[in-house]
C-alpha cells in the first residue's frame, strides 16, 4: 500500500509542471517585452520607426507624432519617417495630410509597392484615394514584393510574391541556354487571408540547370527576355558536386547597409541560408509590426535582386519570433501569439520546404539536400523552455525525435546542422541563451551522432553580431567545427572572441559566411570564408571529410 501511494505521489509530482503550464496563459513561455528594445531615444535606426509604429498601434498618436517630427528635424530627407507620419495621419483620418506625407516618401525613394503593401490595417482609409489608384495602375501586372526563390530541389522550385490585390500569379520559365526549349508555367492565387501573398510551385525541371523566368499578376502576358531573372536548380540527390552557399543572420533594417545583399549576390551563391534575426520584430503580439518589418526589407531593390536569383532557406531566432532571449514554452497553442500570429505571419513571408509539423506541431524546422550535402534546420525558439529548470529543452521532445529520424536518413558526404544560436559554450560568456543553457540536450545530439557513427557533421549558427569559427573537441568522437555568422546588416556589434578560443573572429564590418562544398575530390572538403560588406575576404577555414570520421 505504501509503495502504491508513493507511486501515485510521484505521478502527481511529474504531472504538476505540465498542468501548471496548461493553466498559465503564457504556457511556460517568457513574457514578451517589446518595450525593452522599442523605446524612445534608441541609437539604432532599425528601431526608431518601430517605436513610432508601436505608439500608433497603441493609439498614442500624439507621442508618435512628436517622435516622428523629431526624427524629421534630424533627417528631413528620410522617406521612412515621412511614410510613418503618413500612416499616423491616416489613423487620425487626416487623409490629405496622410497622402502628402506618403507621396513625399515616394519622391524621396520609398518604393511605391511598399505603400500598397501596408500594413493593410493602417492604410484602409486611404485605399480609395486617387493617389493609390495611380500607384496600382503603375504596378499593374507585377508583384509588389518578390519574386523570392525558395524550396529549390533538383527538379522543382517555389516562387513567393506579394500582390496589390487578391489575384492570380503565373510563373513562366525556360532553360536559359536554350531559347527554343519548351516553356514551363504554373500558377497560384494570392489571398487577403495570407496578406496578399502567394507561392507558386513549379515542377518537372532539369537538375543543375539555369532557368530564366518571369512572374506576372492577373492577365498580363509573360515575356522572357535576356534581362529576365535567372536561378539554378540543384544537383541530383547523391551527386558529387562543387557549389557555394551564403549564410548569416542579424539583418536589421539599416538603409546604408542594404548593399550587403548586392555584395552577397556578387559571389553567385547557389543558396542563401538566413539563420535567424532575419528581420527585427520584437513585438510578437502585433501583426502590424510583423508585417511592417517584413515589408520594409522586401521592398529593398538590393534584397529583391539577390533573392530573385538565389534559393533562400530560413529559420527564425528570438527577434523574429518573440523578443530578446525569449523562450516559447513547451505547448503548441500557448501563448496564443505563437501559432496565431508569429508562425502565421512567418509562413506568409517565406516559401520554405516545411514549417515544423504543420498546424498540429508548428515551427520552422525542416530538412533539405543539395546534391550529396544534407541540411537539417532547427527551430530553437517555439518549444524552448526556460534554461533555469532541471533538464531544460531547446527543441522540445517532438522536434528532438524528428531530428534523430532525419539525421539517420542523411547519407550525404556532409551533414550540416543549422541552429539559430551558437553551439559552442564559449560564444556568449555565461549566457544561458545559447546551447550553454541546454548542455544536456546538446550532449544528446552529439552522442546521437557518435553512437550511430555518423561522419561528416558540420555545425552552423547565427545570433552573435560577428563572424567566428569554432572547434568543439570531443572525447568520444571527431571534433565538431562550427561556422557562426550574424551581422549581415546590423549596426550593433558584439566583441570578438579570439581570446575565448575561437579559431578566428571578426566584427569590424558587416559580414556573411561563404561556404564552399567540393565533394568531387577524393577527400571532400568544406571551406568557410568570412566576407565583409565591401566584398573583402577576411579569413577562412577548410575542413576535410577525413577529419570528420
Automatic annotation (TrEMBL):
MF-aspect GO terms: alkaline phosphatase activity
Root EC class: hydrolase
DUF7800 domain location: 145-229
Alphabetical list of Pfam families matching this protein: DUF7800 (PF25077), PhoD (PF09423), TPR_19 (PF14559)
Range of residues in the leader sequence: 1-20
Keywords tagged on the record: Hydrolase, Signal
Residue ranges of every copy of the PhoD-like phosphatase metallophosphatase domain listed in the record: 285-498
EC number: 3.1.3.1
UniProt protein name: Alkaline phosphatase D
Organism: Symmachiella macrocystis
Gene that specifies this protein: phoD_1
